[in-house]
Amino acid sequence: MTGRIWDELVSVGRVARTHGNRGAVIINPETDFPETRFREGQVMHVRRGDRVETLTVGSVRFQEGRPIVGFREIGNMTDAEALAGAELRVTESELAPLPARTYYRHDLVGCRVITTGGRVVGTVKAVEGVLEHSRLVVDAPEGEVLVPLAQEICVRIDPERREIAIDPPEGLIDLNR
């Protein structure tokens, strides 16, 4: 696989560091479904230089909510150390369908954020937090703005139009500056 294909893949986690001396790594998941995503047999991709390589989960266990994964292609601690900091991605077709009014993070990144009154706040550059406590990180002209991803605040989310309408409580936008 080439680097161009990398841009079409979706991030599901990042390798934090090695674990033990047999080539396992600790993953910081970037998915709300780590038990589904990180299970034996799942295929993931990692970029090394200009090459995209395939990794297959050979073993997994969870410790404090983070998966500890042994990839079939990584047999020792030296090879595992080379993965530290690497982003893990999958094809979008491998993602499970979501219930109504829930979205994958990558669907929200790049969306324009406006208030219900028409004021442009900025563009979503990231989504942080766990499912129940997620927040949009909005790149605004005056600086970064954090917006809770709650139905009461994010009243209309339209990933296809690349737009999120918010009805922020008084002071929320200015509080973050």
Poorly predicted ranges (pLDDT <50, ≥5 residues)? Answer: none
Overall helicity:
10-25%
The amount of beta strand, in percent, is over 45%
Multimer state: single chain
The largest sheet is: 6 strands, antiparallel
> How many angstroms separate the termini?
42 Å
What is the alpha-carbon Rg in Å? 18 Å
Domain unit count: 2
Q: Count the beta strands.
A: 12
Name the CATH homologous superfamily of the largest domain. RimM
Helix and strand run: HEEHEEEHEHEEEEEEH
List keywords for this structure.
177 residues; mainly beta; Elongation Factor Tu (Ef-tu), domain 3; SH3 type barrels; 2 domains; 6-stranded antiparallel beta sheet; 6-stranded mixed beta sheet; elongated
Descriptive overview:
The chain is mainly beta. It has two domains: 3-94, RimM (Elongation Factor Tu (Ef-tu), domain 3, Beta Barrel), CATH 2.40.30.60; 105-175, Roll (SH3 type barrels). It is built from five helices and twelve strands. It has helices at residues 3-6, 34-37, 77-81, 105-108, 172-175; strands spanning 9-19, 24-29, 43-48, 51-63, 66-71, 87-91, 112-115, 120-128, 135-140, 143-148, 154-158, 163-166. The strands form two sheets. Strands 3-4-5-2-1-6 form a six-stranded antiparallel beta sheet. A six-stranded mixed beta sheet has the order 10-9-8-7-12-11. β9 and β10 (143-148) form a beta hairpin. The chain is elongated and about 55 Å long. The N and C termini lie far apart (42 Å).
